[in-house]
Amino acid sequence: MVEYLSGNRIQGTSTLTSSPPQTSWKKLGSGTISSGSASASTSSFTAKDNMMVLGNINGGNGYAIQFGHSSGAIDTGSNYRERYITDGTTNTQALRGDIWCYYDSNDDQMFNVSEISNYNGAEKFVFMKTASRDGTSPKLNKAVGKWTQTNQIDKVQVKSFSNVSADSKFVVIGCDNDESDSGTNFWESIGSKTLDSTVSSFSVDLTSTKDFLMFVLTKEKTGGYVNPKLAFNDNTSNYKTRSSDNGGSPTDPSGGGTSNIFLRAGEADGRSFTVGYICNLAGVQHGVITDSTNAGSEGAGTTIDRNQAFGWWQDTSRITKLNFTKSASGSFASGTKIEVFGGNI
Amino acid sequence: MAKTWKRLRDVVTVANDGDQISQFTFDANDYLKVVFFIKKEGTGDMTLFPNAVTSGSNTFTARYGKDFGSLTSNNNHIGIHGNYGQLEGDCLATYYISNKSGEEKLILWEYALGASGDNAPDSFEASGKYTTKTGQITSFSATCGSGGFGAGTWIAVYGIADDVLTDEKTTLTNVPINSRYEEVDTRKIYRRAIPSSPEASKNYVYGTSQVPAGANATVSIGDSGTKMYLTSNSSSDSQKGYQYTLSTAYDVSTASYASKSFQFGSQSQDTRGMKWKNNGTYCYKISDQTGNKAIYRYTASTAWDISTLGSNQSYTYSSVQTGGKDVELNDDGTKMYGLADNATIYQYTLSTAWQVSSGVSSASKSHSCQSQDNAPRSFQITNSGTKLRYLGSQYNKLYTYTLSTAWDISTASYDGADSDIDCNTFTDNPYGVWCKDDFSWLAIGSVDSPYDVQQFDKDPVWKERGVA
Predict the structure, then answer these.
(1) How far is A32 from chain B (nearest CA, A)?
(2) Residues of chain A neighbouring B12 (CB-CB closer than 8 A)
(3) pTM of the predicted structure, to 2 decimals
(4) How much is the ipTM here?
(5) B121 touches A83 (CB < 8 A)
(6) What is the 3-state secondary structure (H, E, C) of A57-81?
(7) pLDDT of B349-365, one tens digit each?
(8) Chain B residues 308-337 with CB within 8 Å of chain A
(9) Could you read off the pLDDT of B253-263 as tens digits, one per residue?
(10) Residues of A (41-70) whose Cβ lies below 8 Å from B
């Protein structure tokens, strides 16, 4: 509130703010694979030392990535190598013309997040994660790969192995090791919450709608196990999860059901830390990729867990709220903290 | 600006083959992202050490696995391990760390490890914790066996940064001329300078050469303020839309008829509000014709050129709202809004962005403006979905509302009479309104003689508050 006082005075607090430095990932390019086509590439962009690609493919047959350099053509030669796991089945491939993360003609949709090193004079390394779905059945897929070219990547192509069924989009972001403080970072805060009391559920309203979301969640707990479950927009329908505990074969977690995405970030009965990515493009269902570490009991002598949960919210409404509920006997404790970022194609 | 990720210090780079990475410090932060690119030199395990803890076996616990295999536990070890077995090639690693003071530090990390020759890279996935609860991780060092790192190895540390508040005051006196104050949060006032010499309002008399006298004419602006469009609901010109050129962007006094028009009447009569998609490729208009209550979308073969409107599709809104005075879409085309006869704005969901031929459904959300004015004319949602401007002719005023959730019309609330713009000063019969997103410029049409469009070069409400 503001008080209006006599003598032409108003009273409250006046603040000027200085913005944080814009020294991290910025948008470098984007592409749309048109319905009836199988690939699309960005225009040539200014190369950056670190890159990420976030993309969504509708239909088609698999999700793959290729690179170009020196404002030249996309390299489709046998200059890529990779190791992958497709929902529990591992394989290696050398002398490929791309790096792919999931391949199945039955797919309806794939959401992929790729981290890429782009250091000049060195081979380029990639690790990729793809949440895919065949109808309502999700799959969990990962790959590591490299491109043997040592020039810096300045063009990215995303492809499927057959024509996509509807327009499919991706964005390339990157930052230099000495990224200057200029322009606007891709990831902007659109939600934040720190709990100041013990609760069994909480939500984060997003201040704006973005195409891709990223969140970091530190869960404090009290009482017994607290297994966070993630839903959106207060909607508890049409979710599916596929998860892997400690690198084991992916399963549909029994605690998940269809009312949420089961993060499994609490199996070890302790604090947990989750990093997640969400596809929030308009007009498509929303893929979710999360990794969690579960601390277990305090101290260095106790075993901890790593859990991966890939899932889908099979609804095309844009996500404007994240809902977290607990599924076991404990509760979210004061100090639980989430930061949500978003960026647009 | 808002919180975002920032680099916490200059990137640390290894200068010589065989060097290890000595301890380096960075600013404390609750969350860390570390990107580590390793040029192969030595062949031993790589390890990252927080806060110079390089000995003792009671401060770290991890679980890790290679090549997408099962992750095995490794309690009571030293440092954050990067691999097991020998390093065969260069390597990319990323770490995410929950770095909360007073708690154990939780870590997720992954590597793509280069293999020799044409072999596929190895994967490495891990989670772990640094069990020291006191303070935060504010430094790292790293080693790679006895052989060290290759020259060019680098490590970058990022954290989350927020706005920094400066110039905080508890009492304000002697408000500077040409400053304005806006309450946007409880007991906080943000100061923003306004132009020292704001332009006076201008107008453009469109007369009766295109839009027939007596027709209801709505106003819209496009192409970065260089084009203006007026629509007619008169049968005498078959419900045409007309395009005007603004030789100076957002200056209606420089308008001239572009000799371009489109006959909306071929699809439906009683054309009311018209809006463009933000890139000028689609034009939407709402028809209030009895028996044909529909919102039409037309495709422009040349963006922003009304004379190139061609194929169309439509949505019949009569099952949701009675009458249609104006139409609006959100910035990504997934929401649509219609202004009805009862001065209520209804929200629709578009399952395919920008498409109205199918997949349109009522969002069961609405907001009534009847308490302010029961004679609806037009409206627009601005400020990236958080402000609603509604024009009524009962009192000839433009009313302002705030949407607490962007683009959710059900969250609208009236800003109060202090925010009204009284149009009676220049017309007895306002019709269309169009505002820039930040409300720093707006145009209001008049359908009384001399038939003109009035321009406000800045928010008139703030003009008044500046005086106060």
Answers:
(1) 15
(2) none
(3) 0.65
(4) 0.94
(5) yes
(6) EEECCCCEEEEEECCCCECCCCCEE
(7) 999 999 999 999 999 99
(8) 332-334
(9) 999 999 999 99
(10) 49-50
